[in-house]
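Our working data are protein records whose layout never changes between entries. Instead of coordinates, the fold is spelled out as a row of discrete tokens. Here is such a record, shown just as it appears in the course material:
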Amino acid sequence: MALELAPGTATGAGSLPGNDPLEACRLVFGELPDLPHLPELPNRGAGADMIGRSAGFLVDLAVDLQPSGWRLVSRPGMDLRRAKDFLARDLDALEEVADGYSGPLKLQVTGPWTLAGAVELTRGDKVVADPGAVRDLRESLTEGLRAHVADVARRVPGARLLVQLDEPSLPAVLAGRIPTASGYGTLAAVPEPVAGSALGDLIKALPVPALVHCCAPGAPVDLVRAAGAAAVSLDASLLGSADDEPLGLAVEAGLTLFLGVVPGTDADLSTVDNTARVARRLWHRLGFAAQVLPERVVLQPACGLAGASPAYARRALARCRETARQLVAEPE
């Protein structure tokens, strides 16, 4: 499914600092009017973190927080109830702030491979070590995510939804860099065709377009394209000449590029001109016409902003919006 976005669109990666979902939603809808998103506030603690929040979507699979991390357990407990409560509060805030909104709206969830590389089996290593458990986790996540999309569609009926699958651990899963339970070794690498097929099954099962966000080095752009994603989201500072060919093929295939152009933690922000130059330089390197850049590239922070100060987070989102609009006003 293709994305329908206005030229010069900017958005956020997902997470923000703070613990007030109403304030976070107001910030997002104020600074990112062309593509707001459901904010994530991991600083609230366990259950609001990336893994715990997404594990809360699982259907008929329960998780609990152990000293070593999130683990599959036989029955739901306090930690899972807390994760679901955080999400419910976030959705209530979204429904209030987005009342009357019409346009694209982005939801984020941890992708199946990053989730499988982080959640532990009931006894032993991470889920990624067991192909059967990976399948169960993916199917459970798919079912829960479909229900989540339907819930948001009911709450914000004017929204055109898209889902961002956060896969920062996908390169490590493919390279066999996920540590064993002992910490003295690593789990076997997952073959790229297997990883791509599983990711593609989830994407195909969603009723809305999906994009894959990977802010780690070595993002497997070819795999994302083959899996049927509508867009790929990458940190511009991590892209080198070796990434040009797969990225160019993805754009030629119709994928939208979500490009992280400002840091995710407090930093001295460059000027709008210099930030725009980051996107233009990459686009020129890929060999595409400058005039179509605002139509095919969405600007955003390189990664989530949970580790940033509130003041910087606001400036970073505003800078992405200002830069995206300059790309439209001055196509070069």
In short: DSSP finds twelve helices and eight strands in the chain. The longest helix spans residues 131-155. The chain has a mean pLDDT of 95.
